[in-house]
């Protein structure tokens, strides 16, 4: 047994905690903040609300609402340029994984020269960034507690992460009330992303007793509460449990990494613009079936945590049930289950390029319980087609 533990900074959890943002920004020594968010948050009035909390505490706010669903290196560079010009001393990320990832990257770009593209990789950031506060408005990405910012280079469509512990947020304000207005489809796909983080971390070759603690809690919570949150978005208890599942999934992910499902889903986002959570939700049953017998103990336990096990089952059978549990969950949530249903123009002629791009996502592939060849990737895409 040999492992490290990584944790981000402080976390406040509970309905209403997002109103503390101004106070916390002041405590972190800032008088001018850049607030990084998207058009949805602007429309919902949440951008203004957070901006008001900052202003009330005496923190001037420079607002950027242009983060796109699959955020780019180019957008990140533009926000960093704005933040440098305006002398912003703190970054606040408000929204889903996209806004938080851009915010985390901007924090280190304020203090490190050049483009975000220079830092895509592992441990390439030289100087610590300015402090950063994350306020998630979805429950799933876990970006509020991870050290990764995933950005697409528009020039070649390749998705790559800036992975560096200097990206760990200093403060995360987890306010379930902010997720009450999330539509059912977004609730479902982001919630499935949380489940993928937890299940992939749980079955990762880097899994530790520490990451397992959080992974188990996250898997069980998603199994119990995701249907409730998707079917009745106003249920604050379900929203709180899902926000906790996202947090735990993020901690598991930060400590054990993700595996082949995330690697295989990257080309769906990069080449066809499929939303991250939706791509992972679609692929996870196929990957779980492929992986099950490489870690039957973990997959059987996960099936149980999802409430899907009959007692006294041989381990092998229990492990294979995990994929069935995932299939059922995705069906209940009304998410697409095949590549064809996505209607984004994916055909078998794309599989070779998709498989090559998935294999290039090296760390998650190395973490995968079962060795995956290019032919295996292609056959998973083929199975997922119809
Ligand atoms: Fe994810």
From TrEMBL:
The keyword Oxidoreductase applies. Keywords: Oxidoreductase. Coiled coil: none annotated. PROSITE patterns: ADH_IRON_1. Gene3D superfamilies: 3.40.50.1970, Dehydroquinate synthase-like - alpha domain. Pfam families: ADH_Fe_C (PF25137), Fe-ADH (PF00465). Residues 10-176 form the Alcohol dehydrogenase iron-type/glycerol dehydrogenase GldA domain. One of its GO terms (molecular function) is alcohol dehydrogenase (NAD+) activity. Residues 187-385 form the Fe-containing alcohol dehydrogenase-like C-terminal domain. This is Iron-containing alcohol dehydrogenase.
């Amino acid at each position: 047994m040999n492992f490290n533990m990584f944790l981000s900074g402080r976390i406040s959890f509970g309905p209403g905690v997002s109103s503390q943002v101004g106070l916390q920004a002041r405590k972190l020594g800032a008088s001018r903040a850049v607030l990084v968010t998207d058009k949805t948050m602007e429309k919902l009035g949440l951008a203004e609300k957070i901006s008001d909390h900052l202003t009330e505490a005496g923190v001037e706010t420079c607002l950027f609402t242009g983060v796109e669903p699959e955020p780019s290196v180019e957008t990140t560079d533009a926000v960093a340029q704005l933040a440098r010009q305006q002398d912003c001393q703190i970054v606040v990320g408000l929204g889903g994984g996209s806004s938080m990832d851009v915010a985390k990257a901007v924090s280190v770009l304020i203090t490190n020269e050049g483009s975000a593209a220079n830092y895509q990789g592992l441990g390439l950031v030289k100087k610590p960034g300015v402090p950063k506060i994350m306020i998630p408005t979805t429950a799933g990405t876990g970006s509020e507690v991870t050290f990764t910012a995933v950005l697409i280079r528009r020039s070649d469509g390749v998705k790559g992460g800036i992975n560096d512990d200097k990206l760990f947020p200093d403060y995360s304000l987890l306010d379930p009330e902010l997720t009450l207005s999330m539509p059912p489809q977004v609730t479902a796909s982001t919630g499935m992303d949380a489940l993928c983080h937890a299940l992939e971390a749980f079955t990762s070759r880097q899994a530790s007793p520490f990451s397992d603690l959080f992974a188990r809690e996250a898997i069980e919570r998603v199994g119990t509460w995701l249907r409730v949150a998707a079917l009745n978005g106003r249920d604050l208890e379900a929203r709180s449990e899902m926000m906790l599942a996202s947090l735990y999934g993020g901690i598991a992910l930060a400590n054990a990494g993700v595996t082949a499902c995330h690697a295989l889903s990257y080309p769906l986002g990069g080449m066809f613009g499929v939303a991250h959570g939706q791509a992972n939700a679609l692929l996870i049953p196929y990957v779980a079936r492929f992986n099950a017998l490489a870690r039957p103990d973990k997959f059987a336990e996960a099936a149980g945590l999802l409430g899907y096990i009959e007692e006294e089952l041989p381990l092998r059978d229990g492990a294979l049930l995990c994929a069935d549990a995932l299939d059922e969950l995705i069906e209940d949530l009304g998410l697409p289950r095949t590549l064809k249903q996505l209607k984004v123009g994916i055909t078998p002629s794309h599989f070779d390029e998709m498989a090559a791009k998935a294999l290039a996502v090296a760390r998650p592939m190395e973490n995968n319980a079962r060795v995956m060849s290019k032919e295996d990737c292609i056959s998973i895409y083929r199975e997922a087609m119809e």
